[in-house]
């Protein structure tokens, strides 16, 4: 089942992009900006990815670099404001420059990343989901396994917006913000 293996979110995103492309073809005068947003981090952002960083050990999928591209929440609002201010319409990847692997993230957090075979993780996620002890299901494995690395060249050169933080800086700012809020994601010293 393609939807389950890719994750429903990816299927819905693709369907929305196809629908938007159809509208552009039917209504060429329509100015449309599509922002494909990387993983959002911010001072008070909580999502499924940030929840992974809170774990004692990070899970890595054996044989997959699982790179993460991050974008700071203020860069998301900045890009939206830029679009509303008359930037050229089009489809743009909204992410900071660069990427961090799960092992690099674990190292920055002072934690270990444990490598697991994809089949073992898929089975564990299926069991955990069925028992109601995991918020993650097996359909999310490929989302982590085959993470897209978003190239933001068009965002900067054609759209005219340069994110203020690259992926590394966004991650470091997230870690620092969590510490200031008394919710550290780093390993205890």
Topology:
Elements: H1 2-6, H2 8-26, E1 33-37, E2 39-41, H3 48-53, E3 58-61, E4 70-72, H4 73-84, E5 90-94, H5 102-109, E6 113-116, H6 118-131, H7 141-145, H8 153-159, H9 167-180
Explain briefly what this protein structure is.
With 189 residues, this protein is α/β, with parallel strands linked by helices. The protein is 48% helix and 13% strand.
Properties at a glance:
single chain; 189 residues; alpha/beta; two-stranded parallel sheet; 6 strands; 48% helix; 13% strand
Going across the biggest sheet, name each strand in turn: 1-5
**Number of E-state strands:** 6
Q: Major beta sheet, specifics?
A: 2 strands, parallel
The dominant shape is globular
The number of helical segments is 9
Level of helix content? 40-55%
- Strand proportion, as a percent range, falls in 5-15%
Backbone CA Rg? 18 Å
Order of helices and strands: HHEEHEEHEHEHHHH
Q: What class, by secondary structure content?
A: alpha/beta
What would the average pLDDT be, to the nearest integer?
A: 89
Poorly predicted runs are 1-7
Distance between the termini: 45 Å
Can you characterise this structure?
- With 189 residues, the protein is an alpha/beta fold.
- The protein has helices spanning 2-6, 8-26, 48-53, 73-84, 102-109, 118-131, 141-145, 153-159, 167-180; strands spanning 33-37, 39-41, 58-61, 70-72, 90-94, 113-116.
- It contains nine helices and six strands; from the N terminus they run H-H-E-E-H-E-E-H-E-H-E-H-H-H-H.
- The strands form three sheets. It has a two-stranded parallel sheet. A two-stranded parallel sheet has the order 2-4.
- The chain is globular.
- It starts with a helix and ends in a 9-residue tail after the last helix.
- Residues 1-7 have low confidence and may be disordered.
């Amino acid at each position: 089942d393609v939807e389950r293996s890719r994750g429903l979110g990816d299927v819905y995103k693709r369907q929305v992009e196809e629908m938007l492309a159809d509208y552009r073809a039917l209504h060429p005068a329509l100015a449309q900006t599509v922002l494909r947003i990387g993983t959002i981090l911010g001072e008070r952002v909580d999502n499924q990815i940030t929840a992974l960083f809170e774990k004692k050990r990070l899970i890595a999928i054996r044989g997959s670099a699982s790179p993460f591209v991050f974008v700071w929440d203020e860069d998301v609002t900045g890009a939206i404001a830029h679009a509303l201010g008359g930037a050229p319409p089009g489809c743009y990847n909204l992410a900071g420059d660069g990427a961090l692997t799960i092992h690099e993230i674990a190292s920055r957090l002072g934690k270990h990343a444990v490598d697991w075979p994809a089949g073992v993780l898929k089975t564990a996620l299926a069991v955990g989901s069925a028992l109601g002890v995991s918020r993650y299901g097996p359909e999310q494995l490929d989302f982590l396994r085959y993470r897209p690395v978003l190239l933001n060249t068009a965002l900067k050169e054609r759209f005219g917006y340069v994110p203020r933080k690259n992926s590394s800086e966004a991650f470091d700012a997230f870690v620092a913000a969590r510490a200031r809020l008394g919710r550290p994601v780093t390993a205890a010293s």
